[in-house]
Specification:
- The chain contains four helices and six strands, in the order αβααββββαβ.
- The protein is α+β, with helices and mostly antiparallel strands.
- Strands 1-2-6 form a three-stranded mixed β-sheet. A three-stranded antiparallel β-sheet has the order 3-4-5, with helices on one face.
- The longest helix is centred in the middle third of the chain and has 15 residues.
- The chain starts with 7 loop residues before the first helix and ends in a 7-residue tail after the last strand.
Length: 138
């Protein structure tokens, strides 16, 4: 449980923001979306069993979309680019890349080819990744 407890208005605001972000999955033109999820995140039943199952089912529904690729980074993998914290890579029209990294209380946007390019190289294809359906969390 979060301590101190979050105020109701703040919780509603955060839920509304998360639901609004879901619109990216139905936007036109359809963007190509690729995700790598740490396996530990899928195994932790935050919110209780029913909520956790619902979250896994939602991920499986999203993964079925033709424009979405989801992969799971297995716990057995010793090193990978996400160990330094979560990040988002976005490729815009004209192949311009933007990287967004966030860790507790700090975030950074990098628009330079040098900064975002280094993350792209570190996250390239990896034979050790699993699909969501291959993960033991399923």
């Amino acid at each position: 449980m979060w301590q101190p407890l979050l105020d109701e208005a703040l919780m509603e605001q955060r839920v509304a923001a998360r639901l609004a972000r879901q619109e990216v999955f139905s936007r036109r033109p359809v963007p190509h979306l690729s995700f790598v999820i740490e396996e530990a995140v899928l195994l932790r039943p935050l919110g209780g069993e029913a909520v956790w199952r619902g979250q896994l089912e939602q991920l499986l529904l999203i993964e079925e979309k033709r424009n979405v690729e989801m992969q799971v980074m297995p716990l057995s993998r010793q090193e990978h680019a996400g160990l330094a914290g979560p990040f988002t890579l976005t490729e815009m029209k004209g192949r311009r890349r933007i990287a967004y990294a966030e860790v507790q209380g700090d975030s950074r946007v990098t628009r330079s080819a040098r900064g975002s390019g280094s993350l792209s190289v570190r996250t390239g294809p990896c034979a050790h990744r699993l699909t969501l359906r291959q993960s033991p969390a399923r």
